[in-house]
Amino acid sequence: MSAPYRNTIVKKNVGISEMGIKIPESFIKVESIARERKLPLEYVNGGLGLRQARIPYKLTLEELVLHALRQIDCRRIERFFIATESDYDISKAVLGVATVNRNLNTTQVPFQIKFACLAGVQALLLAGEYCAATGKPAVVIVADRSIYADKKAEVTQGAGAVALRIDVNPKILSLDFTRYGQYAEDIDDFRVPARTAPLPQVNGPLTKPAYIKCLVQAFEDYKLKYHKAGSILEETDYFALHTPFPKMVVWTAAALWRYENSGGKELVSLLKRCLDQPRIFNEFKKLIDETREDKKFMKFFRQKFEPALRYNSYVGNCYNVSIFLSLAAALEKARKGEKIFLMGYGSGAGSIALMADAVKEGFDSGLAKQIKSGKELSENQYRKWKSEAVKKIRKL
After folding, report:
1. Where are the beta strands (DSSP E) in the chain?
2. Bridge partner residues of 339 (DSSP)
3. Domain 14-395 maps to which CATH number in 3.40.50.300, 3.90.960.10, 1.10.287.3510, 3.40.47.10?
4. Among 303, 23, 36, 254, which Cα is nearest to 158's?
């Protein structure tokens, strides 16, 4: 009879010691895109909760990464974990080689990961495991830019880069990286086939239930394995989620609230039906809207979810970077010892959920200053950038 499995990873205090963030200076107001695409303004402002789309105008993704890396200590780093879905080569780890080997002048092999917007959380877990196993620091790099042909998705565009130094005895955030909830299912809600790159194929009606279902089931997995007694929602101080657009987080928060307070079977069953028949998402939405009108839920959302959404409306969906913008905003509010629940999502589809603890107070991400100093693009400048960006990538 074989011996029972035991987790042999030594549980060390591992997490984030430094965080460097860079978003493009240039932006276009989503109202400008909406007008050109003949979309109602209430759809982008109220319906999605968006204000600006950050555009890498006359700026490369590699340059964004370098700006982020300069904000952290990269000396004596032997392991770089890189997450992106914006590389234009399906074989070569272009972003990893360009940022690590060429610009940092090292011969370290960059570990580049791909799972849509979930890869950043995967990189974080891998870096935590490496750091705990070796006692050595690691660097996680996440960088992406989104660009769409679909007019409804176009208003969600964004770009950015984040660099994280992962250490033993971290100075900013301690990660419980050995315990996480997870869920994956084969769902084609979003794809970027080589023939259409860099423009994705987006199934809008499908991506909403796919996102919510995966996050709810990763939450359920975490709860069943590690938190059978008590309420995660009550005992957690802040929630930081991957944010394609802020309203998606509102819906998910309401779904999690309903899951914990009204039983999860009905909710998960309805979400499963939505994947088979996306048109019935409106039926699910009725349940969610009922929850959103509950005064207790409103208070809960304002206290625990809303703080992490401070910046997303002014940056847009920058894929792997999105959850780290939410985390940065939560860290700016968190006091020492407060708990932050991270919930990542990647189309295709999968979700990972894990708990973390704030190590110190007074963290400043620098994002408020970057957003305030942004420069608005004209509609002509934006159109020219988009056309040239697509042509340039397709020629490579």
Report:
1. 14-22, 26-29, 52-54, 80-83, 111-113, 138-145, 159-168, 173-184, 190-191, 201-202, 238-241, 339-346, 350-358, 375-376
2. 357
3. 3.40.47.10
4. 23
Q: Which residues contact 35 (CB under 8 A, 6 or more apart)?
A: none
267, 304 Cβ separation under 8 angstroms: no
Q: Where are the domains of the chain?
A: 14-395
Give the Cα separation of 322 and 125 in Å (integer): 17
Q: Where are the beta strands (DSSP E) in 107-211?
A: 111-113, 138-145, 159-168, 173-184, 190-191, 201-202
For residue 193, cis peptide bond before it (omega within 30 degrees of 0): no
With beta carbons less than 8 A apart as the criterion, state whether 181 and 353 touch: yes
Distance (Å) of CA 288 to CA 206, 255, 261, 367: 17, 6, 13, 31
Task: Specify the pairing of strand 190-191 against strand 201-202.
Answer: antiparallel
Query: Are 69 and 105 contacting, i.e. CB atoms less than 8 angstroms apart?
Result: no
Sequence-distant (≥ 6) Cβ neighbours of residue 234 within 8 angstroms? none
How far apart are the C-alpha atoms of 78 and 311, rounded to whole Å? 32
Task: Read off the tokens for 257.
Answer: 């609230």
Q: Rounded to 5 degrees, what are φ and ψ at 171?
A: -100, -15
In 3-state terms the chain splits into helix, strand, coil percentages (rounded to 5) of 45, 20, 35
Each of the 396 residues of the chain gets a pLDDT tens digit; together they read 445 545 555 568 999 999 999 999 999 999 999 988 888 888 887 789 999 999 999 999 999 999 999 999 998 999 999 999 998 888 999 999 999 999 998 999 999 999 999 999 999 999 999 999 999 999 999 999 999 988 889 999 999 999 999 999 999 999 999 999 999 999 999 998 878 888 888 888 899 999 999 999 999 999 999 998 889 999 999 999 999 999 999 999 999 999 988 766 788 888 889 999 988 898 888 888 999 999 999 999 999 999 999 999 999 999 999 999 999 999 999 999 999 999 999 999 999 999 999 999 999 999 999 999 999 999 999 999 988 887 776 665
